[in-house]
Amino acid sequence: MGSGTSWLTIIFMVFSLLLSSIIAGGSDSYDPDALDALFHSLANQTLMKHHTGTLKKVPLPSNLSGMEVSVIRLRSGSLWNRGTNTSIIKIPPRVRTLHYVKRLAIVYDNLGNWSSKYYHIPGYSLVSPVVGFNVYDYSNLTSLGDEKITLITRNEPIVIHFPNVEAKDRQVTELKCVEFGDGGSVLEFKNMTERNVCVTGKTGHFSVAVSSMPMEKERVWKWWVIGFVAGAIGLVFLVSVGVIIVGMGRRMKVKTMEKESDTAVALDTFWVGGDKMPSASMIRTQPVLEHDYVP
Q: Which residues pair with 200 in a beta bridge?
């Protein structure tokens, strides 16, 4: 009864996925969360037939041809001691789950030529397939938990190797590692430091992107930015020099006035009512007789 119900659920999800793709066909938009839910159900069916520690390919409906999904079931202790590897994703030892679970399952997926339908970044083009992995609780050995489990890395990061990056004419500094979150949102966007390799500490979906702006326009745009920044710096410099020159001129004028006031003859002052007024000294020229004759 349980198995029949599971298959009905899967059929319903596939039908819903097909319907949403047809409806969204005009806008070229697909739902990555619905795709994750479908992979979860299909992986759950696959795990019922296989043992712990063996990576198994998950059969997909024919309408999803070009995608690849696989699943592996592990004990938490095995993940901690040995980690686990696929040809694309390497989870190192000393990785644990945020909340302890006895057993867990990792669902890996590679969207292949469907990548740009489910994930896209304005102004950038994906140059590698979107690959990802999610971790679920599998402690009861009957079905996968519904909630995604968070991993915590201790020493080494999780390494993602992209074997097919369609950007051989681009320098590694032009390549961007992209991490997608729920709903296809961009969680992290950073420079690639080693060609075809990205590192992370989280589960999710990942790809490599380059700017979709033509190289010549990109160079012109960069020069415009450099010119604008240089012009702004130059303007600030000229204004600063002008302020300094004006300030120095004022200080020199004040010093000149002070020097002149030091060399000038000081006037006496006297009070008129409540006001202090300047007053010249009463020194008159002594009279000189024109003749010695005194009458």
A: 158
Show the tokens assigned to 40: 């979860």
Q: Find, among 189, 167, 164, 165, the residue nearest to 178 by Cα.
A: 189
* Token output for 48: 């019922």
Tens of pLDDT, residues 118-159: 999 999 999 999 999 999 999 988 889 999 999 999 889 999
> What pTM does this model have?
0.65
In sequence order, the β-bridge partners of residue 135 are: 106
Q: DSSP per residue over 263-284, as a string?
A: HSPPPEEEEETTEEEEE-----
Answer for the pair 115, 88: CB distance below 8 angstroms, yes or no. no
Greatest Cα pair distance, the chain, in angstroms, is 158
User: Of 71, 84, 60, 72, whose CA–CA distance to 10 is shortest?
Assistant: 60
| Beta-carbon contacts of residue 81 (< 8 Å; ≥ 6 apart) | 93
Query: How many angstroms separate the CA atoms of 43 and 25, rounded?
Result: 27
**Segments in 31-156 forming alpha helices (H):** 32-47, 76-82, 115-118
CA–CA dist 89, 199 (Å, integer): 10
Predicted confidence (pLDDT) per residue in 155-203, tens digit: 899 999 998 888 888 888 889 999 999 889 999 999 998 889 999 999 9
